[in-house]
Amino acid sequence: MTAYTPLSELGEFGLIKLIKDKVELRNSSTIKGIGDDAAVIEPSEKQIVVSSDMLLEGIHFDLAFCPLKHVGYKAVAVNVSDIAAMNATPTQITVNIALGARYTVEAVEELYEGIRLACENYNVDLVGGDTTSSRTGLIISITAIGEVAKGEAVLRSGAKENDLICVTGDLGAAYLGLQILEREKQAFLANPEMQPELDEKQYIIGRQLRPEARMDVIHDLKERDIKPTSMIDVSDGLASELFHICAQSGVGATIFKDNLPADEQMLEAALEFNLDPITCILNGGEDYELLFTVALSDYDKVKNHPDISIIGKITDKSEGINLANKHGQSFPLQAQGWKHF
Amino acid sequence: MTAYTPLSELGEFGLIKLIKDKVELRNSSTIKGIGDDAAVIEPSEKQIVVSSDMLLEGIHFDLAFCPLKHVGYKAVAVNVSDIAAMNATPTQITVNIALGARYTVEAVEELYEGIRLACENYNVDLVGGDTTSSRTGLIISITAIGEVAKGEAVLRSGAKENDLICVTGDLGAAYLGLQILEREKQAFLANPEMQPELDEKQYIIGRQLRPEARMDVIHDLKERDIKPTSMIDVSDGLASELFHICAQSGVGATIFKDNLPADEQMLEAALEFNLDPITCILNGGEDYELLFTVALSDYDKVKNHPDISIIGKITDKSEGINLANKHGQSFPLQAQGWKHF
Fold first, then answer.
1. Which residue segments constitute the domains of chain B, with CATH numbers given?
2. Cβ-based contacts of A40 with chain B (< 8 Å)
């Protein structure tokens, strides 16, 4: 039987020490990490990019089915994903956490094990943050810092008419993974004896619980000498992100329905839940893939990439944002995204 | 009568636009602010410092007596204070907020008015962040970025034997301001007709509700060519911060009780609450003054500064951390700080 230690036994400074002792620094730009009023970073000739996201228990994750280690990993990954979407390399993060009274030292260790693992995988240094108590559940607020050579940052505003619209991986799976987890939670609450059969859903559940930032694609694009003209990560849903790119670039877009990348498990789950798979792909969100545009002249460089789908083209603004089917019919695209309020 | 607009009418993107439209950029290092996956910053030859803090309603502030504008101002000021404590100049912040369902657009505008005012006063650019919903109250997580010339950052670890221990302003007032506000809240709850008489307490209440980061002192030290050997800001309390400096510098310290800076209103309030004023000064916290050490050779430069008190000296580690009275008697100092868990 595992012994559990209440946080009060450790105290705030004990907790900070516990976190600090497990931190390894990997980046030469990290001059001073945890343990002072602020971290010190030396980006030398580079520009730095900064992004920040907050995840709340009960809003962004449900501890009924999301292990704390995955919560920690995901909190880092979604921030790294924003850095990736700038065509930058993540270097440091700060982590602020608020913990409810029911949290034990072991729970916090599990959370930070996920954070540590993500730092290792993305080669990022945890350099600071804040720990405090919460009257409700767990709150994690992460700020990620990355570096990029001057002129190499890719904004949302650079898409030009005739550019190709590309997306990495497949879409909609994270949303359907969440539907399955929610259903299993309800089934478990109704009958705690029931054992869920989730083997055939592992991929889509994994997409929800432990998404990855596509730093692999960022490195790969660099190797292939492709610089996207615009880029954004898919957190709210493909349609919503495309609207951001079009609005900020002052362009329109046509997406080809048949080119949208879908995973087999996602399609089966959509059928099971009686959901339109195209809607899941367009509006599902939380896939953390990269949506980007490249110049038409880069077509040969991207066309055979196993992990990149060419899903459409940038048009003149006056044409609007449309979804086209194989019969050449075109319909205006709707962006749902997430409504927080 | 003021009309109130529910946040749901505005939506997340409407809220982001509302925030973005009021932002002014002041620093040439801010290349790209709000509106992309990450902000882009170009610190040129400088090092950057990064600090992050989270404030929760019901834990760090009480909206019963703390206006939202002050909450916004304070959230920025406490982060800027950490940047100041590194001997750095703040340049950018990111702001993550989570809002409960009862918040109106007008309330969010008031909060951001405080943030905007602090950005103006400290010459800081709001460059990004995240807005989300909360099942409970307001949560604000801010990351502040600053710049400092290479080699000029002041850490907690540089104090040397015989250094002078200095502190800015006066201490203990923020803590007593909080006691008064808590008492008036209870009195109001017991009898809503009662009008509090707070005119004579304005200074100490202001110290609690709207603290300032001592960037003025940082600029002043630079002008006088004083570089502290170690520095920290007083958030948890003087004693607790002194313990950090001594632990990280591997030294001891003696504080002279009679040199501790106290404000008249604070002393009166301590009497009123039957609290030992020295305990309030040593452990009160939230004053956001700067505690720093300077070489003995800088004595002439600091001795007549109107806003700096020389409160002690650094000793060998073996002597421990002590409080000395005018009769030469010395007692080991206790650090209480804040217990979050």
1. 7-148 (3.30.1330.10), 164-332 (3.90.650.10)
2. 47-49, 86, 148, 153
ipTM score for this prediction: 0.90
- Mutate one of B46, B50, B140 to test the A interface: name it (highest A CB count within 10 A): B50
Question: CB within 8 A of B1, min separation 6: which ones?
Answer: none
Contact A265, A203 (CB under 8 A): yes
**Alpha helices (H) in chain A, listed in sequence order:** 7-21, 68-84, 105-122, 173-190, 202-209, 215-223, 238-249, 264-272, 277-283, 299-302
Is there a contact between B176 and B274 (Cβ–Cβ < 8 Å)? no
pLDDT tens sequence for chain B (341 residues): 557 787 777 777 787 788 888 888 888 889 988 888 889 998 878 899 999 999 999 999 999 889 999 999 999 999 999 999 999 999 999 999 999 878 888 888 999 999 999 999 999 999 999 889 888 889 999 999 999 999 999 999 999 999 999 999 999 999 999 999 999 899 888 888 877 777 789 999 999 999 999 999 999 999 999 999 999 999 999 999 999 999 999 999 999 999 999 999 999 999 999 999 999 999 999 999 999 999 999 999 999 999 999 999 999 999 999 999 999 899 999 766 545 45
Q: How far apart are CA A169 and CA A184, in angstroms?
A: 26
Residues pairing with B6 in the sheet: B104
Please name the residues between 234 and 293 in chain A that touch chain B, using a CB distance below 8 Å: 248
Nearest CA in chain A to B44: A45
Task: Give B 215-234 residues with CB within 8 A of chain A.
Answer: 231-233
Query: Rounded to a whole number, what is the distance in Å from the CA of A193 to chain B's nearest CA?
Result: 30
Instruction: Point out the residue among B51, B94, B339 whose CB comes nearest to the CB of A50.
Output: B94
Nearest CA in chain B to A247: B35
Kindly determine whether residue A58 and residue B135, on different chains, have CB atoms separated by under 8 Å. yes
